[in-house]
Amino acid sequence: MRVRAPFCDALKNGNIGARYEHPHTRMAESTLIIIKPDGIHRHLAGEIIGRLEKKGLKLAAAKFMQVSEELARQLYAVHQGKPFFEGLVKYLSSAPVLVMVWEAEGVIDMARKMMGATFGYDAEPGTIRGDFGCSKGYNLIHGSDSPESAEQEIKLFFRPDEIIDYRLADADWLYGKND
Ligand code: RTP
Ligand code: MG
Asked: How many domains does the chain contain in total?
């Protein structure tokens, strides 16, 4: 029987088999990602999800919802009292958003790099904010900035049973044995 070359290479390199204990499935980190109201209205949800998917991150939960002002205040509590806080709360609660949990080892930093700098006009080309916006206030996407804030933020939006535990079918091809 003919076996395709990439599969042979993977066998040679020891990258096939006994994957269920792979470190990248055991040590996965989680982050809260929100496609903000402008991302939904500008038809960018698919583009943003596509980028996260193609990177190899794992979607663990998703909810399309209208965020209340109270919930927006809780999410951004760290910014309470700053001049932009009230505007930020109004913005996030002004229209539906797509709230998601994504997982991978190091996902918090990876997602932040993919998002780009906070303001669209500062964000590098190639990043989500850099490619699709030039605004200060409307910046398309939220991502947790530390493991501690990810844990707090995820709890605000999802019950534990809403976060799905599964293994991506291509996990063996996302990471090699030496990762
Ligand atoms: P996010 O929390 O939404 O992922 O954004 P971030 O970490 O890049 O930025 P952060 O400093 O946490 O600010 C939260 C959101 O507040 C708005 N903002 N406006 N006018 C201003 O000076 C100002 N600074 C921040 C942005 O919408 C930012 O995403
Ligand atoms: Mg932030």
From this structure: 1
